[in-house]
């Protein structure tokens, strides 16, 4: 990361307080979606944000100027999860319509597919991941192998590789420069996946546990297995904090677990309304890792202090499903996506009133 970006994140990390969180409100909203936002991602070093929506659109925003730069429709394949590559106008996204429209259900065929010298079969019409240039709306590469919905997608920030998890109970490791997967891991449940910031470790969560893998020798199996405190409900999202010291895991039963990523110690658990099997409970660390913000099954948003484990802020909603939620890198801002895209920033008038009371 460039020095300027690092300095900016350090500066922001010193400024985030409970009072700032409590003052945050929607400063800008885009309400022109015709479906729920299913995924979004910030580019690490630019001011760009990308969203994916059930209206089968991918939208690119310039956050600094609060403008939508481009809308690209993926009517044929649909779009579910989306993530930036290292390039600010290139993304990888998963299809949502299923089977890529290749064959009807009556004509599925079993064929053999080689992945890292291991043979397994999948149904033609497999779920694809696509490398898309937003600049000219061109597909640069297709990544085929999963044969059910992809529910987790994590890109490595230091290398051109990524990991995907599917309801077909496989986790695949990919190189952006190759169409065939570079590795395959079988799991016994719905997988949630994540790389750490250094790209040295990745995590796979399912069945009440988080399994930690060394990227250089993942085929030997996990080097650590951490318990999620007895929570056996389906894993939704697993993430590392920016400094890699903490992890969070969300589950379908409405639990957000914060875990020490070195010791495996369960530090705290926050509870929100459970989510349906078609929804995903997403949470996000603040840039310095001192706070966690999360959606809820009733559409609300909550914030907790990692240090105290206490709820420090909440925002009620008229929505009925959990919003996707991301904290903007190096900014006093987080973004939620539901039927609209909302940018949350501190209300300076509330902060001024707080300073006056002090």
Q: What descriptors fit this protein?
A:
four-stranded antiparallel β-sheet; globular; Methylamine Dehydrogenase, Chain H; about 45% strand; mainly beta; 3 helices; about 350 residues
Overall description:
This protein is mostly beta strands and 358 residues long. It has a domain of 121 residues: Methylamine Dehydrogenase, Chain H (7 Propeller), CATH 2.130.10.10. It is 8% helix and 46% strand. The chain contains 3 helices and 30 strands. The chain has a 4-stranded antiparallel sheet. Strands 2-3-4-5 form a 4-stranded antiparallel sheet, with no helix packed on it. The longest helix is centred in the first third of the chain and has 13 residues. The two termini are 38 Å apart. The N terminus is likely disordered. It comes from Nyssa sinensis. It holds the Pfam family WD40.
Summarize this, please?
The protein is mostly beta strands and 358 residues long. The protein is built from 3 helices and 30 strands. It has helices spanning 3-15, 18-23, 348-357; strands spanning 24-30, 37-42, 48-53, 57-62, 67-73, 82-84, 90-94, 110-115, 118-123, 127-133, 138-146, 150-155, 161-166, 170-175, 183-186, 192-195, 201-206, 209-214, 224-227, 235-240, 246-251, 255-260, 266-271, 283-285, 291-295, 301-305, 311-315, 324-327, 334-337, 341-346.
């Amino acid at each position: 990361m460039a020095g300027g970006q690092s300095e900016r994140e350090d500066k922001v990390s010193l400024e985030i307080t409970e009072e700032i969180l409590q003052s945050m409100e929607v400063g800008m909203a885009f309400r022109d979606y015709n479906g729920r936002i299913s995924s979004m991602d910030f580019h690490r070093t630019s001011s760009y944000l990308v969203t994916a929506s059930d209206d089968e659109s991918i939208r690119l925003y310039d956050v600094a100027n609060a403008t939508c730069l481009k809308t690209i429709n993926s009517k044929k394949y649909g779009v579910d999860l989306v993530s930036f590559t290292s390039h600010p106008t290139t993304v990888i996204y998963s299809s949502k319509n299923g089977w890529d429209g290749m064959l009807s259900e009556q004509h599925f065929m079993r064929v053999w597919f080689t992945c890292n010298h291991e043979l397994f079969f999948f149904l033609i019409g497999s779920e694809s991941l696509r490398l898309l240039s937003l600049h000219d709306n061109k597909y640069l590469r297709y990544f085929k192998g999963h044969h059910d919905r992809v529910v987790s997608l994590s890109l490595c920030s230091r290398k051109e590789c990524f990991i995907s998890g599917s309801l077909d109970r496989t986790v695949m490791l990919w190189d952006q420069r190759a169409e065939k997967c570079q590795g395959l891991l079988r799991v016994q449940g719905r997988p949630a996946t994540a790389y750490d910031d250094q790209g040295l470790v990745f995590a796979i969560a399912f069945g009440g546990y988080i399994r930690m893998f060394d990227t250089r020798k993942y085929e030997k199996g996990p080097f650590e297995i951490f318990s999620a405190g007895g929570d056996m409900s389906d894993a939704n999202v697993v993430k590392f904090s920016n400094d890699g010291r903490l992890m969070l895991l969300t589950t379908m039963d409405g639990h957000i677990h914060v875990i020490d990523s070195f010791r495996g110690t369960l530090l705290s658990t926050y509870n929100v309304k459970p989510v349906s099997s078609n929804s995903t409970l997403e949470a996000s660390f603040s840039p310095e890792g001192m706070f966690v913000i999360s959606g809820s099954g009733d559409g609300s948003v909550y914030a907790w202090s990692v240090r105290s484990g206490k709820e420090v802020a909440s925002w009620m909603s008229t929505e009925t499903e959990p919003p996707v939620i991301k904290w903007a890198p190096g900014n006093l801002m987080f973004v939620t996506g539901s039927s609209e895209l909302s940018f949350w920033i501190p209300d300076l008038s509330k902060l001024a009133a707080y300073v006056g009371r002090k």
